[in-house]
């Protein structure tokens, strides 16, 4: 067995008798307090049979303490994916997901303080403390932002808090059946007595080492909001995965039809804050979607990576276009305006259309000679940069005509028409070029 498989398999065996997993919300799955070891083992996947090509298992120093982490994946990949497991779960929670993403992303899974092989923290349990640990882990693992954060259950609280405090570091978010702070508040009207009994059962059944965490989570549920939020979540690409599985014999309030309907509605409301992404419902999985249908989590991460990269490209292009406008205005005062213009329009990411639009923005109504002259420099440089573009030639001809340089304008319009005919442009385009050529051939109007 390779080291990756051995680590996951050993973690699974050693923790099986001590793991206390729960569904977020106050129904916080008290079931597992009484589940047998056999039942729990059946719910867990087998360790992968082969390790990813690149894998580095470490005990990372986070200020005098060691946290267990595994870094894997393609070091040349643009995307960095970081996982946060749910309450009571260590890094083995992602054993069916992380290896599938490794061929195309940098991936980090780790166990929080006091979980798995990670050493406990002397600090009180809090989202903020966990966020500080995560920042230290990312620094120790030498993984710079931006990050795609993936959080399951209580892990969703953690990635929300981290993202709200470090929005500039976040490329995307994936929520795997995420906890919601208002779930107790919507459950209580359904059956307050049953809810109270389940809470008591949870508190009594939680292993001692998880009780501080359980009390902290319950305080969030009681308050109905996350504590000490750093700010709103960044509007980055996001996917929310929601379990809508129906239970023939619901053992907890969460699994009743009314409880599941509330769960789905809260997730729907939560997702509404994002402008890009998807809310995916699955009737197949229970709360641990990463075990039951790992391919859904993998697909969600892939989608967020793709959308985040597209968003980054759009933002880079918007920034380049905005910079172009300023650079072109500055070029007018340069010692060699033409050279300054030609340098500005060659900035990475800019297209012929971007420069063309910038030239027309400078030209305006064409009545101000200095603006028209600068526009002529811009559109002329664009026509030279793209000598086979009929559109660039036609645009240059238009500004030359505005300046009264009719012979030069005729030459550009004729070139545009010739290029367009060779390229098989539509009759409408050809007619517009012929019209421009005719206008340039007319005698200049007397002042």
Full CATH superfamily name of the largest domain: Alpha/Beta hydrolase fold, catalytic domain
Q: What level of helicity do the residues show?
A: 40-55%
Number of strands: 8
- Ranges with pLDDT <50 over ≥5 residues? 1-53
CATH architecture of the largest domain: 3-Layer(aba) Sandwich
Oligomeric form: single chain
Q: End-to-end distance, in Å?
A: 90 Å
* Average predicted confidence as pLDDT: 87
- CATH top level of the largest domain is Alpha Beta
Could you list some keywords that capture this structure?
elongated, Rossmann fold, disordered N terminus, Serine Threonine Protein Phosphatase 5, Tetratricopeptide repeat
Describe the protein in words.
The chain has 18 helices and eight strands. By secondary structure, it is α/β, with parallel strands linked by helices. The chain has two domains: 3-292, Rossmann fold, CATH 3.40.50.1820; 320-441, Serine Threonine Protein Phosphatase 5, Tetratricopeptide repeat (Alpha Horseshoe), CATH 1.25.40. Strand 7 (238-243), helix 10 (257-271) and strand 8 form a beta-alpha-beta unit. Helix 13 (337-345) crosses helix 15, helix 16 packs antiparallel against helix 17 and helix 17 (406-423) runs antiparallel to helix 18 (427-441). It is elongated, with a radius of gyration of 30 Å. Mean pLDDT is 87; it is low at 1-53.
Short description:
The protein is of the alpha/beta class and 447 residues long. The protein contains 18 helices and 8 strands. The chain folds into 2 domains: 290 residues, Alpha/Beta hydrolase fold, catalytic domain (Rossmann fold, 3-Layer(aba) Sandwich); 122 residues, Serine Threonine Protein Phosphatase 5, Tetratricopeptide repeat.
